[in-house]
Write a structure and sequence with these properties.
about 1250 residues; mainly alpha; Myeloperoxidase, subunit C; two-stranded antiparallel sheet; 42 helices
């Protein structure tokens, strides 16, 4: 500290040795503890040092900037090249100089096997999974190099384990044997360190810290991907290094180290190494000892202000020694201070080193995904394998691989005559590799499985063809046909499903066929419960997902039918500089361009729960009884009871559906020639299509008959299973036809083929001219087979469901109009932009507006502010969002799509109201059942305006378990055909089982609610009458389906949903923001909006979007989701709502006008004395200046110019008032009138941030937001 120089490292060590030349042997530890310390140190830390020219260090004339020589009294100048620097590991940015680690920070055996592929390659024999001990660079036995002997021991252990594995698994090849043997050896290395070494070094400190305490059974739950891995400089260069010097000198065999006592903590054993370690620490910028001492102190008031204060942690003679070496107490090096501390009782080191070692060992354990105790597929060990690893001790390893025949159980502790006396090796348990026995998936068996699967697929296709020939197909305008059109698969989804079905059939054959794994006597994986407490049906998934059967599959399965021309797959190279998304979501994530892309599978919060573990929907209760019929769940749990909301409008329902269609589209199977298989017959899975999944009308239903009166057959609800999309062996995963991003794909489509149909010329979207002279309507299509309109015309949009019901078509119309309105605004400020630029920039703005409305207006009402804040969903009032993560998965959650975001079904009312310009009801309202795929009424004059007013004025139904009979009894019902509709809520329950969603109780546990053991445990979240209804139909609380369970919870304070659905929805939208590289608030310089543009986007409200695009602008409340209120939410003229200023997007091509003169791009000027502006390609960016000398300002600028500048008068008004009589100032004039000279003067310090003009200064960016 201060300006004086530090004493040379070697001089410090010399003074310590002179004063205290010898340190007593340690009373409890063996010398082997020092050797093991070196083994651990080499495994997690290695300094990378360049090789510099010898004449460029210690030279007075040619000193290299990377030379940091050591100078001392004895040797003079000693060459030292600084450690190689590296970027900060977790964000790849340069902040301060950080040193590169030459090995991984994980305890992964890199010190034994090598830290590079090249070294590993040299070590392998490529025969039987073994290693070549003669090729081991670190195994060369030199005098007193016991560490080389330890390396040799573990490589012998590798070969011993590989031999036993080969005997047990004769079908394993060299690579499998090597990798599995290496995994076992690394697990043993970790276990010895955790179970023997750390307790020996830290003793009681390790026992009281649960993060360091070894587990006797079960798995370790402390790992998190959020825990940052890394080796601490202070540990590598001081704390752990000091433990290395505990090994005894001049001992060349392992057994002697086990017998001999360790040195006490000190530098006597390696003074030169200690000096270089101190020099390394200074090179690495490590703070002094006092900083670590205070940071590690458990007492907050510990202050070390002088040398005397150190007597708290070390002997007074050591304190006296330090005061003679160092000028200030802050100068004391960590290595010296830590070594001189008095160790706590039962601990080998002092409190500071103890603290640092604990931090390092905890980090080493909780940040390692491959830590041996973790239960993380596919790298985790099974329970049986973990039991075998826990049998291992260093004593047993040494017994198996050396000539030692007798050894104490705890080899790091000195032997005694009692519990740690030496015993013979036969008494130690050894590793039994039988736990790694794996029965082979022979190529012949795989080929047989694929052949059987191919035959079954052919049978399925034949069944589809026969059903089409016999016309067992549904009318597209029927209830089943309409429901199918709501989940219509495109060509690409069907092609994807073809291969998925093959993988699924092969999985079933491999597991359940005649030669299947489940028929074999010995299973590969144990069928134990996982940590969440439900049966683990994926016992074979680790194995199967790593089995490649692609070579056995016939890939010539694409249809050659002329109509089946699929949209080209977007696999183009990614351009990280473009600010525009791809339509398919490709390249959003630059590391994995397919993440979140359309036509990829949903993500999951919990593993799937299928009846057979592969694909069959769950039908059996936990008790073994059948699960309740979905229709019974609907009628008992979700009766039709109206309960209007007292605050929110039907617009909440309609926006929720629109938003859902942007994020999710779960397609279902089709039949031959694009037909819709008729799945209403109860035997349709056998007679029509294998993916038909009907369920019967239960006896005594209050609305539907149990028997079809015309045919006499059993009455069933039609249902077709969702398309699979997995491209590997294992459980079925459903495909999302939309992108996983909130990207306005509902407006523009999820691929370029759809967008090209919707796009017009010059940046516009295609429209239909309104026949009633109103504003534009959506594009029309005359080829919609499910269209029920008399005109035979239905509307099309970015999502295929645009005409599903009139209010949804109105919402689509609003956003198409908004696109064209925004595009015209951009065209006016940038007349030089072409149609492509106008379209892409408009699309970018529209997606930003949709994101802003969703997070600013919609989610707070759904979740309440508490959940919004806790899950990081609160938008920034200014500045940029900096939390984007390329490592998170943006794919939509299956639980969100198939259950949690179906909440809008509870908000529905049987009618869609209409209102005139005075907000008076217009009769008749639109009956929901009359509007399905029938948009003809939208051609009527003022109809869209009337429906908008109805949506923003009419209360929605309260979000609860009650659902209108319009969708439980009449969904998609055909006119004149009673009971032809379907039950939407029963379909929700059925769909969740189809998707393999676990039961509601498991998501309670996931979302930190108490997992219920009885129905009464639900009483905090559900009303007693709801629980009573649950008991009537469910045999066990673990059987409750996710949708009825989540819908029945009491809502969160300030929100609409209960805690479980709030958890799922909040996780989804957290991912939608955090995982989206193109999120509208992003700070990515290639993508971001300017501050000014963000200010304009943040003005967006749903009310303003509606107002701007209605045929006739009148009054509307500012919050469209809230009912109008004279006080809280009054109706105001649309013109009074904030509007977007498109000048924020004006491109500057020929400079800017600043202070009455033209300033080139990149240059600055002063329009007024106290304002500085910079001309950028995005326009003029200005900021206020801080005036440090008002009198100087008065001498340089005219009084009139200063008075016109409020920034000046706010800072120098008092000087202006005192200078009215000063004629000298009155004579001062500016050459450009109100302007200011373009030169920079010394009065102005760094500009102050001014949020009103959107200018963000680089040096203050860390404080923004």
């Amino acid at each position: 500290m201060g300006t004086h120089s530090l004493p040379a490292s070697s001089d410090v060590i010399s003074h310590v040795l002179t004063s205290f030349p010898r340190v007593a042997s340690h009373e409890g530890l063996t010398s082997l503890s020092g050797v093991w310390s070196e083994l651990v140190l080499q495994d997690i830390a290695a300094i990378v040092r360049p090789t510099g020219p010898e004449n460029k260090c210690c030279s007075d004339t040619q000193q290299h900037p990377e030379c940091y020589e050591m100078r001392d009294e004895k040797f003079g100048c000693r060459r030292y090249w600084r450690s190689v620097p590296s970027l900060t590991v977790h964000d790849c940015q340069f902040e301060t100089r950080e040193q590169m680690n030459g090995v991984s920070a994980y305890l992964d055996g890199s010190g034994i096997y090598g830290a590079t592929d090249d070294k590993l390659h040299l070590l392998r024999t490529y025969e039987d999974g073994k290693v070549n001990l003669t090729a081991c660079e670190l195994c060369d036995q030199t005098d007193w190099n016991t560490l080389s002997l330890l390396h040799r021991v573990f490589l012998r252990e590798h070969n011993r384990v590989a031999e036993k594995l080969a005997d047990t698994n004769v079908h394993w090849d060299d690579a499998k044997l090597f990798l599995e043997a290496r995994r076992i050896v690394v697990a043993q290395l970790q276990h010895v360190t955790l179970n023997e070494y750390i307790p020996a070094i830290l003793r009681e400190a390790a026992q009281v810290d649960h993060e360091l305490r070894p587990l006797a059974n079960g798995f370790y739950a402390g790992y998190s991907s959020l825990n940052k891995a890394g080796t601490y400089n202070a540990v590598a260069l001081a704390a752990l290094r000091a433990l290395v010097w505990m090994r005894a000198d001049k001992i060349g065999d392992i057994e002697s180290h086990i017998i001999t006592s360790a040195n006490g903590i000190g530098v006597a054993a390696a003074p030169d190494a200690a000096a270089w370690s101190m020099h390394d620490a200074r090179d690495h910028g490590m703070p002094g000892y006092i900083k670590y001492l205070t940071d590690c102190s458990l007492s907050e008031d510990v202050k070390i202000e002088n040398f005397t204060d150190l007597t708290r942690v070390m002997r007074s003679e050591y304190v006296q020694l330090l005061s003679t070496i160092y000028a200030n107490v802050e100068d004391v090096d960590l290595l010296v201070g830590g070594i001189l501390e008095t160790p706590a009782t039962g601990v080998a080191v002092g409190p500071t080193f103890e603290c640092l070692l604990k931090k390092q060992f905890v980090t080493m354990r909780n940040s390692d995904r491959f830590w041996y105790e973790n239960d993380i597929p596919p790298s985790g060990l099974t329970v049986t394998q973990l039991v075998e690893i826990r049998k291992v001790s260093l004593a047993s390893i040494l017994c198996a691989n050396t000539n030692i025949w007798r050894i104490q159980p705890r080899v790091f502790i000195r032997q005694d005559q009692y519990l740690n006396s030496r015993i013979t090796c036969e008494q130690y348990e050894s590793l039994n590799v039988a736990a790694w026995t794996e029965e082979p998936l022979l190529p012949l068996h795989m080929q047989y499985s694929v052949n059987m699967s191919t035959e079954e697929l052919i049978e399925r296709k034949q069944l589809e063809y026969n059903a089409w020939l016999e016309q067992r197909v549904a009318d597209p305008k029927s209830a089943a046909g309409t429901a199918a059109s709501f989940s219509k698969a495109n060509k690409d989804a069907l092609l994807l499903a073809n291969s998925s079905i093959m993988y699924e059939l092969a999985t079933n054959e491999i597991l359940n066929g005649v030669h299947g794994l489940r028929r074999r006597r010995r299973q590969i994986f144990e069928n134990t419960d996982n940590v969440l407490g439900f049966p683990n049906s994926n016992e074979f998934s680790d194995l199967l997902q790593n089995v490649d059967i692609s070579s056995f599959l016939n890939h010539h399965h694409k249809s050659t039918h002329h109509e089946e021309v699929e949209c080209p797959v977007d696999n183009s190279p990614c351009d990280p500089t473009t600010p525009y998304r791809t339509l398919s979501g490709h390249c959003n994530n630059l590391r994995n361009p397919n993440l979140g892309k359309s036509l990829t599978t949903f993500a999951r919060l919990l593993p799937p729960a299928y009846e057979d573990g592969v694909s069959k929907p769950r039908i059996t209760s936990l008790t073994g009884a059948p699960l309740p019929n979905p229709r019974i769940v609907s009628t008992v749990i979700h009766p039709d009871i109206s309960n209007l909301h007292n605050r929110y409008t039907l617009m909440v329902m309609q926006f929720a559906q629109f938003l859902d269609h942007d994020l999710t589209m779960t397609p279902i199977h089709k039949g031959f020639q694009e037909s819709i298989p008729s799945c209403r017959s109860c035997d349709s899975p056998r007679t029509v299509h294998p993916e038909c999944n009907p369920f019967p009308v239960p006896p005594g239903d209050h609305f539907y008959p149990t028997v079809n009166v015309s045919s006499g057959s059993r009455m069933c609800f039609p249902s077709m299973r969702s398309l699979p999309g997995q491209q590997h062996l294992g459980p079925r995963e459903q495909v999302n036809q939309n992108t996983g991003f909130l990207d306005a794909s509902v407006v523009y489509g999820e691929n370029s083929c759809i967008c090209n149909i919707l796009r017009g010329f010059n940046g516009r979207m295609n429209i239909t001219t309104n026949p009633r002279r109103g504003r534009d309507l959506l594009p029309q299509s005359a080829t919609h087979p499910e269209c029920k309109a008399r005109s035979k015309l239905c509307f099309i949009g970015g999502d295929s469901r645009a005409s599903e019901q009139p209010a949804l078509a109105v919402m689509h119309t609003m956003w198409i109009r908004e696109h064209n309105r925004v595009m015209e605004g951009l065209r006016q400020v940038n007349t030089h932009w072409d149609g492509e630029k106008l379209f892409q920039e408009t699309r970018r703005i529209i997606s930003a507006m949709l994101q802003h409305i969703t997070y600013n207006e919609f989610l707070p009402r759904i979740l309440g502010w508490n959940a919004v804040s806790l899950y990081g969903l609160k938008l920034l009032p200014q500045g940029y969002y900096k939390e984007y993560s390329p490592t998170c998965n943006p794919s939509v959650l299956n639980e969100f799509a198939a259950a949690a975001f179906r909440i809008g079904h509870s908000l529905l009312r049987p009618h869609l109201p209409r209102m005139d310009r005075n907000y008076q009801n217009i009769d008749p309202p639109i009956l929901l059942r009359d509007g399905f795929f029938n948009p003809d009424m939208l051609y009527q004059e003022n109809m869209i305006d009337e429906m908008i007013r109805g949506l923003v004025t009419t209360p929605m139904e309260t979000l609860d378990q009650f659902i209108t009979g319009e969708v439980t009894n009449h969904l998609f019902e055909q006119h004149g055909i009673p009971h032809s509709g379907v039950d939407l809520i029963a379909l929700n329950v059925h769909r969740a089982r189809d998707h393999g969603l676990p039961s509601y109780n498991h998501y309670r546990a996931l979302c930190n609610l108490k997992k219920a053991t009885t129905f009464d445990d639900l009483s905090r979240e559900m009303a007693p009458e709801v629980i009573a209804r649950m008991k009537r139909i469910y045999a066990s609380v673990d059987d409750i389906d996710l949708f009825p369970g989540g819908m029945s919870e009491r809502p969160l304070q300030g929100g609409l949903v209960g805690p479980t659905f709030a958890c799922i929805i909040a996780i989804q939208f957290r991912q939608s923001r955090k995982c989206d590289r193109f999120w509208y608030e992003t700070d990515d310089p290639n993508i971001r909006f300017t501050e000014h543009q963000l200010v304009e986007v943040r003005k967006t409200t749903l009310s303003k979007v509606m107002c701007e695009n209605m045929d006739h602008q009148t009054d509307m409340q500012r919050a469209a989701f809230d009912l109008p209120s004279n006080f809280l939410n009054p109706r105001v003229p649309c013109s009074s709502m904030p509007h977007m200023d498109f000048s924020a997007w004006r491109e500057t091509r020929h400079g800017c006008q600043i202070g009455g003169r033209n300033v080139a791009i990149g240059e600055s000027g002063f329009p007024t004395p106290c304002t500085s502006c910079v001309c950028t390609i995005e326009g003029t960016q200005c900021a206020s200046l801080r005036v440090t000398d008002c009198n100087q300002l008065l001498r340089e600028a005219s009084r009139e110019a200063i008075l016109r500048d409020d920034v000046c008068t706010a800072q120098c008004g008092f000087v202006l008032a005192a200078s009215e009589s000063n004629s000298r100032l009155q004579q001062f004039t500016m050459p450009n009138g109100p302007g200011f000279p373009p030169h920079t003067n010394n009065l102005r310090s760094s500009p102050m941030p001014a949020s009103f003009n959107g200018f963000k200064l680089p040096d203050l960016s860390q404080f923004i937001g």
